[in-house]
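Please fill in the sequence for the structure shown.

STRUCTURE ENCODING:
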C-alpha cells in the first residue's frame, strides 16, 4: 500500500533514475547498527528514553520489530548467494575522539554535559562501538569505520566498491536522515545505482524518515521495501543461472 510520501511524488517532477538491480554488482550496506545508536539501553538510546520518550518509543520499536528483522532477511539472502556485504560503523579511531567530525563531536560533548551520558561519540574498541549481534559481520564481510556521517567522506569505500566491481548499492541502517541519507546521496552523486531500503532503515519519527525517502526517490535513486529488493535480487539470480545453463 502506498504511503503518503509516495502519493506526494505524483504531484512532483520525477528526476530519479530507473534501473534494475544486478546481483553480481550489488552490495548490501548496513550503516551504524551499533550499541551506541541502535540499542535502547546504551548511548543514544539511553538519552532518548530519558529525555525524549515519544521518539524513543517509536525508534526503538521500529528497530526491534522492523529494521533488524528485515536486515537479517537481507543478510541471509546475500550470504546464501555469496553477494557483497558491507558493514559501516561510526566512531573515532583515537581514544580522545579528536579525529571525529568536529561539529558532531562538539554536539555530543554538549549533550554529555547536559545529561551526564554520551550519545554517539564512542571510539573504536569500546563496547558501545560494537555492532549488534543480530546483524554482526561474519568472516569475509567488509567492515569500515567512518568518522563522518557519509561513508564516502572518511573511508575508502568508493575505491573498494569499484575494485570489487560493485555499482549498485542497497543502503540500510540508522539514521535515515543522517548517515543513511548522506551515504546514499554521495553514492548516487558518484554514479552508483542506489536504493534506500525503506523498512530496513529508521530515525526518530516517521515524518523525518518519509521526508528523506520522498526527496531521495525524486532526485537521487530508488526506495524499495525488503520484499521488493529480495524479489528483484531473486529474479536477477534466476536470470543469471538460466544464462549460465544455456551457455
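FILLED IN BY: designer on duty
SEQUENCE:
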Amino acid at each position: 500500500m502506498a504511503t503518503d510520501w509516495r502519493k506526494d511524488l505524483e504531484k512532483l517532477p520525477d528526476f530519479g533514475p530507473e534501473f534494475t538491480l544486478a546481483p553480481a554488482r550489488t552490495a548490501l550496506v548496513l550503516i551504524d547498527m551499533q550499541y551506541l545508536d541502535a540499542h535502547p539501553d546504551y548511548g543514544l538510546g539511553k538519552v532518548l528514553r530519558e529525555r525524549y520518550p515519544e521518539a524513543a518509543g517509536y525508534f526503538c520499536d521500529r528497530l526491534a520489530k522492523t529494521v533488524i528483522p528485515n536486515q537479517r532477511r537481507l543478510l541471509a539472502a546475500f550470504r546464501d548467494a555469496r553477494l557483497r556485504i558491507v558493514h559501516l560503523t561510526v566512531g573515532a579511531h583515537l581514544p580522545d575522539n579528536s579525529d571525529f567530525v568536529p561539529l558532531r563531536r562538539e554536539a555530543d560533548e554538549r549533550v554529555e554535559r547536559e545529561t551526564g551520558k554520551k550519545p554517539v561519540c564512542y571510539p573504536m574498541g569500546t563496547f558501545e562501538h560494537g555492532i549488534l549481534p543480530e546483524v554482526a559481520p561474519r568472516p569475509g564481510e567488509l567492515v569500515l569505520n567512518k568518522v563522518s556521517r557519509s561513508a564516502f567522506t572518511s573511508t575508502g569505500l568508493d575505491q573498494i566498491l569499484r575494485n570489487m566491481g560493485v555499482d549498485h548499492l542497497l543502503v540500510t541502517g540508522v539514521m535515515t536522515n543522517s548517515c543513511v541519507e548522506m551515504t546514499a546521496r554521495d553514492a548516487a552523486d558518484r554514479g552508483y545505482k542506489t536504493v534506500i531500503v525503506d523498512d530496513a532503515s529508521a530515525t526518530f519519527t516517521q515524518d523525518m524518515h518519509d521526508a528523506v525517502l520522498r526527496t531521495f526517490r525524486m532526485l537521487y535513486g530508488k526506495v524499495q521495501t525488503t520484499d521488493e529488493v529480495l524479489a528483484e535480487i531473486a529474479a536477477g539470480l534466476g536470470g543469471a543461472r538460466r544464462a549460465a545453463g544455456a551457455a
